[in-house]
């Protein structure tokens, strides 16, 4: 199997893990903040797993960007890419918005570490991880991703 295919399949599979762990971390942090309970090691681990999987996804995405034959076809003219919404999604929007999302998630992680009271730790996760997840979900190539799994 070609290297680019292996990376693409890994990126497609880790996408599930990143999204699921982000959702779990967000729900857990929101529940913790609402209940005003103590921030424990378990809460930190939920945040950490989400951080790790989004970073693995960033690494795979960056590799994919350089090896994907599909992205190579974008090398033509930038004018064509901007006019075609599918090309724009893969070549520009998906990478840029996801990098921004992962930066925000990483900022959320370090802000939770700096926060001194338990409730604000939960809130840092809730706010930054939620914005990150919304950005990620807004730029998934849904029509290509799900059929490749279900069809
Ligand atoms: C958490 C962040 C990310 C998620 C959840 C995610 C998810 C996905 C999904 C579901 C696909 C479709 C896979 C398929 O068609 O089977 C995809 C494709 C792609 N992603 Fe990402 N991605 C993320 C970040 C990134 C980043 C940061 C980059 C680049 C810097 C990137 C580059 C690409 C490229 C180039 C493709 C198209 C590959 C091809 O069809 O040959 N992704 N991504």
DSSP strand count = 0
Strand content: under 5%
User: What shape does the CA trace take?
Assistant: elongated
**Helix fraction by DSSP (H/I, runs of at least 4):** over 70%
Spans of at least 5 consecutive residues whose pLDDT stays below 50 are none
Count of the domains: 1
Count of individual helical segments: 7
End-to-end separation: 21 Å
Mean pLDDT: 93
Determine the structural class based on helices, strands and strand pairing.
mainly alpha
- Ions and ligands: protoporphyrin IX containing FE
Largest sheet: none
Evaluate the radius of gyration.
17 Å
Order of secondary-structure elements: HHHHHHH
Transmembrane segments: 14-34, 46-67, 87-110, 122-142
Protein name: 50S ribosomal protein L27
Keywords: Membrane, Transmembrane, Transmembrane helix
Summary?
Keywords: Membrane, Transmembrane, Transmembrane helix. The chain is an all-alpha fold and 151 residues long.
Describe this structure in words.
The chain is built from seven helices and no strands. By secondary structure, the chain is an all-alpha fold. It has one domain. The longest helix is centred in the N-terminal third of the chain and has 33 residues, at 3-35. It starts with a helix and ends with a helix. The model has no long low-confidence stretch (mean pLDDT 93). Bound molecules: protoporphyrin IX containing FE.
């Amino acid at each position: 199997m070609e290297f680019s295919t292996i990376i693409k399949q890994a990126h497609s599979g880790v996408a599930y893990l990143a999204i699921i762990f982000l959702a779990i971390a967000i729900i857990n942090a929101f529940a913790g903040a609402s209940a005003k309970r103590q921030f424990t090691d378990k809460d930190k681990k939920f945040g950490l797993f989400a951080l790790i999987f989004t970073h693995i996804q960033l690494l795979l995405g960056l590799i994919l960007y350089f090896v994907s034959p599909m992205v190579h076809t974008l090398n033509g003219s930038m004018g064509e890419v901007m006019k075609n919404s599918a090309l724009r999604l893969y070549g520009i929007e998906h990478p840029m918005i996801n990098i921004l999302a992962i930066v925000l998630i990483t900022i959320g992680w370090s802000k939770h570490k700096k926060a001194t009271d338990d409730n604000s730790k939960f809130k840092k996760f809730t706010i930054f991880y939620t914005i990150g997840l919304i950005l990620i979900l807004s730029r998934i190539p849904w029509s290509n991703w799900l059929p490749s799994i279900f069809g």
